[in-house]
Design brief:
Helix content is 43%, strand content 13%. With 272 residues, the chain is of the alpha/beta class. The protein has one domain: NAD(P)-binding Rossmann-like Domain (Rossmann fold), CATH 3.40.50. β2, α3 and β3 form a beta-alpha-beta unit.
Length: 272
């Protein structure tokens, strides 16, 4: 098998939630470039349509369609599932990328910040996947399973709150949930894996990555010395969704430049 064939997605249909910006946008482009038909949904339908237009202008065999879809409520998820069902008979890839955050210092963190964040980041991921399972199961085959890729965060792996307490807890839940679903769905020829990204340029991280100077400062605190690039997400997504990742399920890919293995100082450093 050629290296290209390991990552090719010709004839596959994918849904990327939150696909108009940030990591979702990076993943959507990678999937289109690999030959997939990509449905892009987020609360801002016009932004999704604009991104789809940009991706369709690329010289690739893939295609994109953008429309509104909200995973923040049961009614929103039901409407999104109906839209997907109206647009396609098959679904091979689901990337649960939509997410929200909330930041406030300890002592000032509001109760409401829990319900909103957990509803989108955890309940939304589970319920959308659950309701699209008939399509995913129908598309999965031995040796070529359907793929679910959930987006967690390095903040869900290590005790790094940074004032985003509900967000960090929600991403930890997403990654544990991914392992549970991987175990339960393997027999249905559906793999479930997750990404645990570090800092990438996105609307959510605009306060820290909006310009080159800020990105450089953030990169200084990353073991590999930089913030993430679109190619870093593309490589992980194409691996998990292509032939090369067909025997992988329940994995958490740490796309964080080494933040996931950062620890305190060597306890014997001063003695040595």
């Amino acid at each position: 098998m050629t290296p290209e064939a390991l990552f090719a997605l010709h004839g596959k249909t994918a849904l990327v939630t939150g696909g108009a910006t940030g990591i979702g946008r990076m993943a959507a482009e990678a999937l289109v470039r690999a030959g997939a038909r990509v449905l892009i949904a987020s609360r801002k339908g016009d932004a999704c349509e604009a991104v789809a237009k940009e991706l369709n202008a690329l010289e690739t065999s893939g295609s994109a369609e953008g429309f509104a879809g909200d995973v923040g409520s049961e009614a929103g998820i039901d409407a999104l599932v109906d839209e997907v069902n109206n647009r396609t008979e098959t679904l091979d890839i689901l990337m649960n990328n939509s997410g929200v955050t909330w930041g406030a210092p300890m002592g000032q963190f509001p109760y409401d910040a829990w319900e909103k964040v957990m509803s989108v980041n955890v309940a939304g991921v589970f319920d959308l996947t659950q309701k699209l399972l008939p399509k995913l199961i129908a598309s999965g085959k031995p040796g070529d399973p359907s793929r679910v890729v959930n987006v967690g965060s390095v903040m869900g792996e290590i005790p790094m709150g940074d004032g985003a307490y509900s967000y960090s807890a929600s991403k930890s839940a997403v990654m544990h949930l991914s392992k549970i679903m991987a175990k339960e769905l393997a027999g249905h020829n559906v793999t479930v894996n997750a990404l645990a990204p570090g800092p990438f340029v996105s609307r959510m991280t605009a306060f820290a990555t909006a310009d080159a100077e800020k990105r450089e400062k953030i990169g200084e605190d990353v073991p590999l010395g930089r913030v993430g690039e679109p190619e870093d997400i593309a490589g992980c997504v194409l691996f998990l969704c292509g032939k090369g990742g067909s025997y992988v399920t329940g994995a958490i890919l740490p796309v964080s430049g080494g933040i996931n293995v950062m620890s305190g100082r060597n306890i014997f450093e001063k003695a040595i």
